[in-house]
């Protein structure tokens, strides 16, 4: 594609996508349904929630507010993070602290993990002093990280080999939905654990889907984020084009927000993008990681994804400009750079 030909030569070798091994041997999503959380916890419900000890691994942009919502609901929460200082605000709210994932799973009935990428998720679960070392029969491990299905299946096997139950539950939503308890959980794995974890998922989110076998939740999340990343790249193109032809981009955002193509992302991100300000709700490096994993998923089933592939090149260029930790809407800066090179 022409877009790829513009950007590909500028991509450093270290940012090129890593191949992902095919993992799917049967159709995705054999079972799917949705349950909505509706009523806030009552005092009796809070007592029941508090009787289950909850572990939470990973106190990043998403993990910290998710754990905080569990604490606010009256849950007994134990936290861990590689950088201990990130746990301090939660400890101040009543959480306990353990110095390793192993200690968390050894002392908790149900452990959630929200890690940055597949490598971190595997290391925290299966590495030295990892969750697998402390977990045992009768306990549960819910990985809410965004990883590829192969990584999720690997973690699931090692958790289940201990006799414990495993559920993958990646979330759709970013920082604000995490803070507001409005996440969407895309779950797959042990149905019994899904039912046991449901009250806690409902505290952290507004809806949950059960998708059957492990791998399906991961695949669904990657498809969703692939669409989101492509939409953002196209939105950035639209803003820059409107400016180029003399239109007011603020009016563009308003027009889009009232039409059939409206998405909350546009009205939320548009005003700051116009000002070239990108407050981080979902880091660009994570969006590009998800695009890379989604393209690997597509490759494993021989599905063509040219639009997502082109968008991925833009995110890689943005990373090469040092924008990894900015919000993923900063992908617009890659388009600005291309414009300046052409003029």
From TrEMBL:
The positions flagged as active site in the entry are: 221
GO annotations of cellular component type: cytoplasm
GO molecular-function annotation terms? Answer: glyoxylate reductase (NADPH) activity; NAD binding; NADP binding
Q: Can you tell me which family this protein belongs to?
A: Belongs to the HIBADH-related family. NP60 subfamily.
Q: Which UniProt keywords apply?
A: NAD, NADP, Oxidoreductase, Stress response
| Domain 6-phosphogluconate dehydrogenase NADP-binding, chain residue ranges per copy | 53-212
Domain named 3-hydroxyisobutyrate dehydrogenase-like NAD-binding: residues: 215-334
Question: What is this protein's record name?
Answer: Glyoxylate/succinic semialdehyde reductase 2, chloroplastic
The record's catalysed reaction(s) read: 4-hydroxybutanoate + NADP(+) = succinate semialdehyde + NADPH + H(+); glycolate + NADP(+) = glyoxylate + NADPH + H(+)
What does this chain do?
Catalyzes the NADPH-dependent reduction of glyoxylate to glycolate as well as succinic semialdehyde (SSA) to gamma-hydroxybutyrate in vitro. May function in redox homeostasis and play a role in oxidative stress tolerance by detoxifying glyoxylate and SSA generated in glycolate metabolism and GABA metabolism, respectively.
Entry-linked SUPFAM superfamilies: 6-phosphogluconate dehydrogenase C-terminal domain-like (SSF48179), NAD(P)-binding Rossmann-fold domains (SSF51735)
Q: Which InterPro entries match?
A: 6-PGluconate_DH-like_C_sf, 6PGD_dom2, 6PGDH_NADP-bd, HIBADH-like_NADP-bd, HIBADH-related, HIBADH-related_NP60_sf, NAD(P)-bd_dom_sf
Q: Which organism is it from?
A: Brassica campestris
């Amino acid at each position: 594609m022409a877009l790829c030909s513009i950007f590909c030569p500028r991509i450093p070798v270290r940012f090129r996508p890593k191949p992902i091994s095919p993992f799917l041997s049967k159709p995705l999503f054999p079972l799917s349904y949705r349950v909505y959380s509706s009523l806030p916890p009552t005092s009796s419900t809070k007592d029941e929630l508090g009787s289950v000890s909850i572990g939470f691994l990973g106190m990043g942009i998403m993990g910290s507010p998710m754990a905080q919502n569990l604490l606010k609901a009256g849950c007994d929460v134990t936290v861990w993070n590689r950088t201990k200082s990130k746990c301090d605000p939660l400890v101040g709210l009543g959480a306990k602290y353990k110095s390793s994932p192993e200690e968390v799973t050894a002392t908790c009935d149900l452990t959630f993990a929200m890690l940055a990428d597949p490598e971190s998720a595997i290391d925290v679960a299966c590495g030295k002093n990892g969750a697998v070392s402390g977990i045992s029969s009768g306990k549960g491990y819910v990985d809410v990280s965004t990883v590829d299905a192969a990584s999720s299946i690997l973690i699931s096997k090692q958790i289940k080999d201990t006799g414990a139950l495993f559920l993958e539950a990646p979330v759709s939503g970013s920082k604000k939905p995490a803070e507001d308890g409005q996440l969407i959980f895309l779950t797959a794995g042990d149905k019994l654990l899904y039912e046991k974890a449901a009250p806690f998922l409902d505290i952290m989110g507004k809806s949950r889907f059960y998708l059957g076998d492990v791998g399906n939740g991961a695949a669904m999340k990657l498809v969703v984020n692939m669409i989101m990343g492509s939409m953002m790249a196209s939105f950035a193109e639209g803003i820059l084009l409107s400016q180029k032809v003399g239109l007011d981009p603020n009016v563009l955002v308003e027009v889009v927000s009232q039409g059939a193509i409206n998405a909350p992302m546009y009205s939320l991100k548009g005003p700051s993008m116009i000002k070239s300000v990108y407050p981080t709700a979902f880091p660009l490096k994570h969006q590009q990681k998800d695009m890379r994993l989604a393209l690997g998923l597509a490759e494993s089933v021989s599905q063509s994804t040219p639009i997502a592939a082109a968008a991925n090149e833009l995110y890689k260029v943005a990373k090469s400009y040092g924008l990894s930790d900015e919000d993923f809407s900063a992908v617009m800066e890659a388009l600005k750079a291309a414009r300046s090179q052409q003029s």
